[in-house]
Amino acid sequence: MAFFRSLVKSGALSMLACYGWLRVRLSKKPTLLILTYHRILPADAPERAVEQPGMVTSPQSLENHIRVARKLGAEPVHLSDWLDRNRQGKPLPKLAVAFTFDDGWQDNYQYAYPTLKAQNAPATIFLVTQMIDTGNTFWPEQVLSLLTTQTIPENDSSFDWLRPHLPSGPTPGANRPLSLMEADEVIARLKSLEDAAILEALEQVYTSHPDIAPTETSRSILSGSELAEMAQNGLVMYGAHTRHHYRLNRLKDEKSLKEEIVDCLKDLKSLGDATIPVFCYPNGDITGTGEDLVSDTYKAACTTKTGWNVAGCNPYDLHRFNLHDGNSHSTRTLLATIGRGLL
Ligand SMILES: [Zn+2]
């Protein structure tokens, strides 16, 4: 029975892959595929043990994606170039691909940049500007690290905010650290809280328990010098992903929205010439006021909606394909993910 199920699954995957291949090959209008990545980490990188599986792609997969895109006839382009030509009504490649990376992870410099350089594939990294050159990391990684390495003590009020989100059952994080998958589910549940509130709660945990506070032994976010080096030959450009990665639909007032959207562009411009006025919504979360501020401030915006973009599309509603090892570790799974996104 298990064999039959895996045969059906494999057949469905192949059909989706064929569908993806055909749709891309037969696209009539000039089309742009935007591929989204987060972290690029080798299979044996220790960071994988404390990261959400849906965030990670291996350097080998990235290299394969670039090769497959070229084999499909897609021309790797700078996202900003395609958008400029689209806006000006200039000719566009029949099929183009733009590689984008969200959040500004240090591993983008360590593992993605050498691949991009070797393959001569331009890329855009969407930066969280107030995280650059800090030893900080995002709250999901902090929570994952906490839950997968520590037990959560009962009767300790500094963890009260976390308790309702822990798995129910006989071992709700009190008897043993959680598995990566269990902790990943806690992250999903914690998204009902405000980002700033979670960060504040984590600070209180570290104040009460300095022994488990994150250390700066391994910096996870890009530094200014790494950004400058990647921008040197024009291969990598930088877009905006807010100042603190706060989800826009969870901010209290317009002042905070302005800080995250408008001031992020000011931060970005201070980084130099390799920046583009393109915004990328954290978590894809949008509000009406936020959208208005984005369209007043930026020339385009990437969403988390899945799909491709054709000539004449709305530049503030760019669709992408979110890739990670779980959905694109082989050519067949990559094409199936694209096919599924185009159904
Ligand atoms: Zn992000």
Q: Which helices and strands appear, and what pairs or packs with what?
A:
Elements: H1 2-25, E1 31-37, E2 39-40, E3 56-57, H2 59-71, E4 75-76, H3 79-88, E5 95-103, H4 106-119, E6 123-127, H5 139-149, H6 180-190, H7 195-208, H8 224-231, E7 236-240, H9 254-269, E8 275-280, H10 288-297, E9 300-306, E10 309-310, E11 318-322, H11 325-328, H12 331-341
Parallel strand pairs: 1-5, 1-11, 2-3, 4-5, 5-6, 6-7, 7-8, 8-9, 9-11
Antiparallel strand pairs: 1-10
Helix pairs in contact: 1-12, 2-4, 5-6, 9-10
Give an overview of the whole structure.
The chain is of the alpha/beta class and 343 residues long. The chain has helices at 2-25, 59-71, 79-88, 106-119, 139-149, 180-190, 195-208, 224-231, 254-269, 288-297, 325-328, 331-341, and strands spanning 31-37, 39-40, 56-57, 75-76, 95-103, 123-127, 236-240, 275-280, 300-306, 309-310, 318-322. The protein folds into two domains: 31-135 and 218-341, Alpha-Beta Barrel (TIM Barrel); 139-212, no CATH class. The mean pLDDT is 91. It binds zinc ion. Zinc ion is lined by residues 102-103, 241, 245, 282.
Question: Which key phrases capture this entry?
Answer:
alpha/beta, two-stranded parallel ribbon, binds zinc ion, 343 residues, 12 helices, 2 domains, seven-stranded parallel barrel, TIM Barrel, globular
